[in-house]
TrEMBL record:
Chief location of this protein within or outside the cell: secreted
Gene Ontology cellular component list: apoplast
Name by which UniProt lists this protein: Protein EXORDIUM-like 3
Pfam families: Phi_1 (PF04674)
Record family assignment: Belongs to the EXORDIUM family.
Signal peptide residue numbers: 1-29
Organism lineage: Eukaryota, Viridiplantae, Streptophyta, Embryophyta, Tracheophyta
Compartments in which it is found: Secreted, Extracellular space, Apoplast
This protein's UniProt keywords: Apoplast, Secreted, Signal
């Protein structure tokens, strides 16, 4: 039997239809997937509610598995060609998760919602997230087209390298594989912008929580870097200016946030998720995909912030600004973020 597919950063179309029909969620997560063909006006006028995505029909449950309660270390694996400026943007975002002194609304304020989730002992998700050792794979050791399984082989190469291997940290480590804009990963742009799962001991030698996120700048910016780019088939929709001057990387930030939040609350796919099937779980960020502010839902991102330079964002980091999707609040039972107008 083939291994179950890794978790995706968005709900495949069939699963979306199942959730819509079975759970009747009034405000659904959204990304402009090329195979979705709603009425063109749906793209321009998304539905909104005071409590974004709220629904008594969403039953997010704890399935007794472990969550990341110890200090979380993110180990970036830079696969392909990366500019130093791009790495700095991503490093600062990860560092901003624990930067509680950042200007409000902040990335650290966003993480407070993730911290509401607990394990069976009542211990909360850690409030400390930092960047650990990094690995560069600038020579594309596994080629420029990766499958879901070869993604794990890249991670194996990183933890078993003869020089400066990444530490093996199954308890509080998050292995973040980042592919450059000239690398294709299985299903990229069609129905995923990133995914997370755990490595198989038969391939890597260890069970390690990991995520993959790709730079879509050359392949599908209108899908995975939305709203900093928009697809041609959506009439009347214009992109907004990215806050750090790099459409591909600014688009990656929200996907990275999505995956880190879900890895922290569901690292082995047996902790926090909705639905009955752990192979296709609906997790805390899936429920809020595409919602960045008050009123968000459907194709409407919600109310975001505009800088004096014209850039669009919704939260502050240590020195930079970022656009990050909201996550599901288990106490309020709806999507929340630090830039909500009722905060």
């Amino acid at each position: 039997m083939p291994p179950p597919p890794p978790l995706t950063a968005a709900i495949p179309l069939l699963l979306f239809l199942f959730l819509f029909l079975f759970f009747a969620v009034p405000v659904v997560s959204w990304r402009p997937w090329p195979n979705a063909k709603p009425n063109s006006t749906d793209f321009l006028y998304g539905g909104s509610k005071k409590y974004e995505g709220s629904s008594e029909f969403v039953h997010l449950k704890y399935h007794m598995g472990p969550v990341l309660t110890a200090n979380i270390t993110v180990y970036p694996i830079w696969y392909g060609t990366w500019q130093s400026s791009q790495k700095r943007i991503i490093r600062e975002f990860i560092g901003s998760i624990s930067a509680v002194a950042s200007k409000s609304p902040s990335v650290a304020g966003w993480w407070k919602t993730v911290q509401l989730y607990t394990d069976q002992t009542g211990a909360n998700i850690s409030g400390t997230v930092h960047v650990g050792e990094e690995k560069n794979d600038r020579f594309y050791s596994h080629g420029k087209s990766l499958t879901r399984l070869s993604v794990q082989s890249v991670i194996k190469s990183a933890v078993s390298a003869s020089t400066r291997p990444l530490p093996v940290n199954p308890k509080s480590g998050v292995y973040l594989l980042l592919t450059s804009d000239d690398v294709y990963v299985q299903d990229f742009c069609n129905n995923v912008c990133g995914f997370h799962y755990f490595t198989f001991p038969s391939i890597v030698g260890y069970t390690l929580p990991y995520a993959w996120v790709g730079n879509s700048a050359k392949l599908c910016p209108g899908v995975c870097a939305y709203p900093f780019a928009v697809p041609d088939y959506i009439p009347g929709l214009k992109p907004v200016k990215s806050p750090n001057g790099d459409v591909g990387v600014d688009g990656m930030i929200s996907v990275i946030a999505h995956e880190i939040a879900e890895l922290s609350t569901n690292p082995l796919v047996n902790a926090w998720y909705a639905g009955q099937d752990p192979v296709f779980p609906v997790e805390i960020a899936d429920l809020c995909e595409g919602i960045y502010g008050t009123g968000g839902g459907g194709s409407y991102t919600g109310q975001m912030l505009n800088g004096k330079d014209g850039a669009t964002y919704n939260m502050n980091g240590i020195r930079r600004r970022f656009l990050v999707q909201w996550v599901w609040n288990p106490l309020l039972n709806y999507c929340t973020g630090p830039n909500a107008l009722d905060q």
